[in-house]
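Subject: Integral membrane protein structure
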Amino acid sequence: MASASDTTPLLADADPLAGSEQNEDNITTFRQKKEPFFRITVALTIFSAVFSTIAFVFDLIVIAIDSAAPHGYYLFWGLRYRVHHMFGISVLTLIFSHLNLASIKHSRRPLWLWVNLIVDAVTVVYVVGTAPEALSQNFHQSPDSWLPDTGAANTTRAVIVLLGIGLVSGLVVAFVHLVHFPVRCYASLKSGSWQAPQSWKVPGGEFKIDFSIKFLRQEERSEPLIEEP
């Protein structure tokens, strides 16, 4: 008579789910693995989104007030030109910072590295070449030149303050992207993500088009001629 120990399968063989549970744990751990400097990346992206929003709002208010001036413009031509450039940069950084936050929330990683590096470089170059001169011109404006129109003079003082806040916020955004540029490069080299193929995916979904082309071959059928008697 065979003993019970001879016919009883081993516990490891009796539990077919043990291997699958271990694989699932490994997959979960792999999916939850964070990239290097993940927290720094998130913090810098949030700073960029916040100060880009401030710069966008205040620059837009100044542009609207300047365009609605009853007796011309509140800003000189050179300052107006630079404000419009700063407004465009704030739109760029505002869009990409929120897209990066959406991508981090969805896939725990920002957008494509090369796109972010281009945005960082463009932001730093344009802001450094525009904001300091714009600040200097802004604070050299003279509200008293609108006197005796006290309303216009007071509006000019408000424009100087609002524009100052917008330009300083733009400089903060440029500093954030200046710090973020080497952080992105070092994190990419350390993780080796620059060697992986980059997929074109929009955060939250994919856009895919499938199409097929078929060539139908038409055969000509010749009908026999029927001769009449």
